[in-house]
Write a structure and sequence with these properties.
about 75% helix; 30 helices; two-stranded antiparallel sheet; mainly alpha; about 800 residues
Length: about 800
């Protein structure tokens, strides 16, 4: 019906030629092929139908109708061809319908039974499904928990480490938490809380570790003393061991004897010998190190913590700053440090402890402190130490304390030198301390010498037996062949102070030697030090003590003579002191730069001072006797005998000059020296006596003098001349000693003889009998006699008889005045 409807709607196509029909058939065939294809779009095809030619739609419809009819015929042919088969199939299908219904019933029944029997299985299956879901959830949970449990375990471990103060391990745990564990489970809230809490824990660790460091710094201040004491003891033991090895190696050399000083026994190397051997026992004990005495773990821990936290520089700056502050505190000495050696010991122990700790930190850590830092602190400390020691050592007046200080400085320097610190400036300081030590020794020995001089009896040493003689000779090098031949008991010329002084000089040499040890100086330098110290003792201390002794008022002539004897023997002993120093130092005295002892000049000066004091005291004693003179200047006649005071004076002079026979005369030099001293003293005494008598006559307070007084005075002068001519001291040639009274003799002879005409006539002639009479002296004495003659009653009774004499006196006075005026013009 469709095809009929189509045919009715389309008009008849116009007639076309055969070729056009073929062409048209071809075009429409292509169009229908495109339309029948389900893959190609229809829009283009349909557009080509309508856009091609006029009436194309109509022709298309005609062709489409023809095409449809053609397909209908083909379909009909196909249906006709398959119709019988279809009928047969339907017939067979109808036949199996009954069987199908029967089979359907059976299937339905089977399905029912299957459903009934499978219901339990279904329930079990659902249960299994639920279990599988639970199992899957559990597996997921376990998997997540396995990721979370390590985080929790690490966090728990972190808490335990914090509680046990294992901060460095705690920081490592934090680092693992942040980088490894927390990122795996970062989606959970508790992990975010943990991550937020870790910075706070780091700051707490930082604060705690800094607090531990502060506690360590405070503790190290308290332990520095013990650390330094241990280090210095180790250095001292090492030095003692080296000294023992060197001593053993030089066994064949000269060994200096054991000696005593200030109640303590010393060996040749200056070390004190103590009966208690506790020091050796201590040396056998185990010596602790700085690591044993100080727990450095807070420093290491804090350093590691700040390193892990990336703030190492802050820690290093803080540590160095605090240690510099502590160094300044350590270098501050106590005000009374100079009073005892323990004060110096504590001071050195603290400084050594400080630098031992720094040296340990330097080598045990990487860069916490550097060598440049320790050198900077040491240079600062060294300047302060030297200034402190220079100041406090100047307060020391005890040589034993100065010596202990020197030993401490040496051990202190050796200890720090062992740790690599330069200590040359300390050894330079020891030379300043040595000068201070020598000064204290000289002060101390000055007291010793003064005590020796005060206790000396200034008399020759008596020796009763040979043992006593050997004892004295062992202490002092005395050799005299004549005295050795004498039988016991006998006397040695010097007093007991001589061997004591000689022994004390040797003691000072030993004391100086003790300071020179361990200064790392050559034998020549030590020899020079000893000789300089000995020279200072001789030229300053002993010389000063001798000069003061000689000037003391209670030292008499006998003591002065003994002092001359003593200084002579001490002078002779100087060569033995030089040999003594040479034996100690093994330095030949022929060495070019060897310092010589100046003892010879010291004792010569003391001897000259003693001689001068002898002359002075003799003159003073003469003055004392002269003051006892009591002349009656107006007496008419003399007593006929010398004055008592003068006879006492002469007896004193005789006994005094007998003392000079004890002066050393065992060789030509001493004989000439003793004779010279005695002669000089005798001549000085006679001259002084003559001068004093002359001054007595010419005293301005003496206004009148009689001829009787002149005669009495002449008797006294005669006794003086007799004393001079009696040779009280041997060695004078002729009347040399009598010449001391020549002025008095000529003056008195002039008045006694009344030989004015000769005097005036021969005045000025070299052969004058009264050559030594000065006109002024004669005028002064004559005027005293003229005044007496005017007031004398005798002259008044015999005025006529003595008128010529009075005129003569006036004439002589005028002539003498003219001579005096001529001399002054």
């Amino acid at each position: 019906m469709a095809s009929n409807r189509v045919h009715a709607a389309l008009p008849d196509p116009p007639s076309l030629s055969e070729e056009e029909n073929k062409e048209e058939e071809k075009v429409f065939g292509n169009i229908f092929a495109e339309l029948e294809s389900v893959d190609l779009p229809l829009g283009t095809t349909l557009r080509s139908i309508y856009d091609d030619q006029p009436n194309a739609h109509k022709r298309f419809m005609e062709k489409l109708d023809a095409r449809i009819r053609n397909h209908d015929r083909e379909i009909e042919k196909m249906c006709n061809f398959h119709h019988q088969g279809f009928v047969d199939a339907i017939t067979e299908l109808l036949k199996v319908r009954a069987d199908a219904e029967k089979l359907m019933g059976q299937v339905t029944d089977t399905n029912r039974r299957l459903q009934e029997s499978g219901r339990e299985v279904t329930c079990q299956t659902e249960e299994v499904i639920r279990c599988r879901i639970q199992q899957r959830n559990m597996a997921t949970t376990v998997e997540k928990l396995q990721l979370c449990i390590p985080v929790l375990e690490m966090y728990s471990k972190l808490k335990e480490q914090l509680e046990s103060k294992r901060y460095y391990a705690a920081l490592k745990t934090m680092e693992q938490l942040e980088k490894v564990f927390i990122p795996r489970v970062s989606q959970y809230r508790f992990c975010r809380i943990m991550a937020e809490n870790l910075p706070r824990l780091r700051e707490e660790i930082k604060e705690i570790s800094m607090s531990d460091l502060k506690d360590f710094l405070e503790s190290i201040r308290k332990h520095s003393d013990k650390v330094g004491e241990t280090a210095m003891r180790q250095a001292q033991l090492h030095r003692t061991f080296n000294s023992a090895v060197a001593k053993q190696a030089s066994t064949g050399h000269y060994t200096k004897p054991v000696y005593t000083l200030n109640g303590q026994t010393h060996t040749h190397n200056g070390l004190m010998m103590d009966e208690d051997t506790g020091d050796e026992d201590e040396g056998d004990e185990e010596i602790l190190t700085a690591q044993d005495l100080v727990d450095f773990s807070p420093v290491y821990r804090c350093l590691h913590i700040y390193t892990v936290l990336g703030d190492r520089e802050t820690f290093e700056n803080y540590y160095r700053k605090q240690r510099k502050k502590q160094a300044r505190l350590v270098l501050q000495p106590q005000a009374n440090m100079h009073e005892t050696v323990e004060g110096y010991r504590r001071y050195f122990n603290q400084i050594v402890g400080f630098f031992v700790v720094e040296d340990h930190i330097l080598h045990a850590t990487q860069g916490l402190v550097t060598r440049a830092f320790t050198d900077e602190v040491w240079n600062m400390a060294l300047s302060k130490i030297i200034a402190v020691l220079r100041t406090h050592s100047s307060y020391c007046d005890d040589p034993d304390l100065v010596l202990e200080l020197k030993n401490l400085i040496v051990i202190f320097a050796d200890t720090l030198q062992g740790y690599g610190f330069p200590v040359n400036r300390l050894f330079d300081l020891l030379f300043e301390v040595r000068d201070q030590y020598n000064e204290t020794l000289l002060k101390k020995w000055a007291l010793v010498f003064r005590e020796i001089f005060e206790l000396d009896n200034y008399s020759p040493i008596p020796v009763e037996t040979e043992e006593e003689y050997i004892l004295v000779v062992s202490r002092f090098p005395f050799h005299d062949a004549e005295i050795e031949k004498q039988d016991f008991p006998k006397k040695l010329p010097m007093s007991q102070s001589v061997p004591q002084i000689y022994t004390q000089v040797k003691e000072l040499i030993y004391a100086s030697l003790k300071f020179s040890e361990s200064l790392h100086r050559s034998s020549t330098e030590i020899d020079d030090m000893l000789r300089k110290s000995t020279n200072l003792l001789l030229t300053r201390t002993l010389s000063s003590c001798l000069q003061n002794l000689i000037k003391k008022p209670h030292i008499g002539l006998t003591e002065l003579v003994q002092i001359i004897i003593n200084t002579t023997h001490l002078e002779q002993a100087c060569k033995y002191l030089e040999e003594f120093i040479t034996n100690i130092t093994n330095v030949s005295p022929e060495t070019v730069h060897t310092t010589r002892l100046y003892g010879l000049s010291t004792f010569k000066d003391a001897r000259h001072a003693a001689e001068g004091e002898i002359y002075t005291k003799l003159n003073q004693k003469i003055d004392e006797f002269i003051q006892l003179a009591d002349y009656e200047w107006g007496m008419a006649e003399s007593d006929g005998r010398a004055s008592g005071y003068l006879m006492d004076l002469i007896n004193f002079l005789r006994s005094t000059f007998q003392v000079f026979t004890h002066l050393p005369n065992n060789n030509n030099d001493h004989a000439s020296m003793s004779g010279k001293v005695a002669q000089t003293a005798c001549m000085s005494a006679c001259k002084h006596l003559s001068t004093s008598l002359m001054q007595m006559l010419l005293d301005t307070e003496l206004k009148q003098i009689s001829m009787g007084a002149i005669q009495q005075f002449n008797l006294d002068v005669i006794q003086c001349e007799l004393f001079a001519s009696s040779e009280p001291v041997p060695g004078f040639q002729g009347d040399t000693l009598q010449l001391a009274f020549i002025d008095l003799r000529q003056l008195l002879d002039l008045f006694m003889v009344w030989d004015w005409s000769t005097y005036l006539a021969d005045y000025g002639q070299p052969t004058s009998k009264y050559l030594r009479v000065n006109p002024a002296t004669a005028l002064a004495l004559l005027e005293k006699m003229k005044d007496t003659s005017k007031k004398n009653n005798i002259f008044s009774q015999f005025r006529k008889n003595d008128r010529d004499k009075q005129k003569l006196i006036e004439t002589v006075v005028k002539q003498l005045r003219s001579l005096v005026n001529g001399m002054s013009s």
